[in-house]
Amino acid sequence: MTEAMAEEFQKQNKDIKVTVGIGGRGGGFKKFCRGETDISNASRPITASEQKACKEAGIEYIELPVALDALTVIVHPSNTWASEMTVAELKKIWEPEAQGKITNWKQVRDSFPDRPLALYGAGVDSGTYDYFTAAIVGKEHSSRGGFTASEDDNVLVQGLAGDQNALGFFGLAY
Description:
With 174 residues, this protein is of the alpha/beta class. It is 33% helix and 11% strand.
């Protein structure tokens, strides 16, 4: 939505260049509170510590909810075995203890095939990552490593689309 708005604005104001960057919500708020950006998109309200940082830097702002998103877990379109998964199975895959241990679909559920498990997810600076880890693993910012992470959901979509053994998470809008 931000990119679309920037494009429309620039059509009407050809002499003004609007740059839309991609980053995680945590990093984005840090830049915003330092006065490095004018607008900060986020999937959650600004925290008390971020409010304090903005106030100390003399940054005044308003919060304006524009849209709501949801979290989605995706598998490659040719994956016929994982049409549904439990939260317990997702936790088994994503918890820190899974690092280096849960590497195959069959390890998740006996009826799944003996195929490598390729994981994709929101980057660690992302509010999506924070929410996913809290909802699935039970603790915010707690997950295994060893997965393809990006704050750019398009990178995740491309990875999932190109890997038959893929499972990943990101915002439903993508």
